[in-house]
Design brief:
six-stranded parallel β-sheet, alpha/beta, 270 residues, four-stranded parallel β-sheet, 11 helices, globular
């Protein structure tokens, strides 16, 4: 039996659109409701209590849109606020476990690197998931707090000296470690693939959490006969600056986003 309700996706800002892009590739007939908390980005520098509070508010908004499942397209929320899922009346998907599994499957030398926000790295969730799947794996984690602001400003090209030097500074420990696989532990980070590949080289496999999570969502919908065969529309909501969201969203989604499709929400009053 088909389920015509939309898929709900939320993130602290724009980065979660990289997950939306992958979901659209996997499930082109699904409707999507996206909430980007652009007024409170980034989450990665906040306390665990604050991140959980924000996650609950974001989830509450998506539930008000009658979604059939929720995707936390945010590495920080997935790492430190996943327990909010226990309170939800719909299935919940996070990006940490799916990315970790794919990294273990792809790595040949067992040396896996994880980059993420400060909160994501501090949580140790990726490392725990990886070691659960492969106890012999060697894992290095590196916090890259400046990556989100770079992406939010639209600075992500490899020929931008500021971007390239920032990436070099953060990824030096990973080069020294000899990892052959790198988890992009924040959904903003796939936007920086070009400079990251330039620094690490083509021999290092990059794991896009959005791709892994989209496949998991597709499998769940198919197994439970909850697919929508007649949809394909997306609606976007933000907590601040819808004009800025529109200009950047078109780049991240690689498709045009009409201004009328982006609405501002007062998330604090939900």
């Amino acid at each position: 039996m088909a389920d015509m309700r939309p898929i709900g996706v939320f993130d602290s800002g724009l980065g979660g659109l990289t997950v939306v892009k992958e979901i659209i590739k996997e499930l082109p007939n699904e409707d999507i409701v996206y909430f980007g908390d652009t007024g409170r980005v980034p989450y990665g520098t906040r306390s665990v209590e604050t991140i959980k509070k924000y996650a609950r508010q974001d989830e509450k908004f998506l539930l008000s849109q009658d979604v059939k499942l929720i995707v936390a397209a945010c590495g920080t929320v997935s790492s430190v606020a996943g327990d909010t899922a226990k309170e939800l009346p719909v299935p919940f998907f996070e990006v940490v476990s799916h990315a970790s599994r794919q990294a273990v499957e792809k790595s040949k030398n067992g040396k896996i690197a994880v980059i993420g926000t400060s909160a994501t790295v501090k949580s140790g969730q990726h490392k725990a998931e990886i070691l659960k799947l492969n106890p012999k794996a060697q894992v290095i984690t590196v916090a890259c707090p400046l990556f989100v602001p770079l992406v939010e400003e639209g600075w992500y090209k490899a020929d931008d000296i500021i971007v390239l030097e920032t990436v070099k500074r953060y990824l030096k420990p990973i080069l020294d470690f000899g990892a052959d696989t790198l988890i992009l532990g924040c959904t903003h980070y796939p936007v920086l693939c070009e400079p990251i590949k330039k620094v690490l080289g083509e021999d290092v496999t990059l794991i896009n959490a959005g791709t892994a999570t989209a496949k998991a969502v597709a499998e769940y919908l198919k197994e439970n006969a909850l697919e929508n065969q007649n949809g394909g529309k997306s609606r976007f909501y933000v907590s601040d600056k819808p004009e800025f969201f529109k200009s950047q969203a078109s780049i991240l989604l690689e498709s045009e986003v009409d201004r009328s499709e982006v609405q501002k929400v007062d998330i604090n009053n939900l």
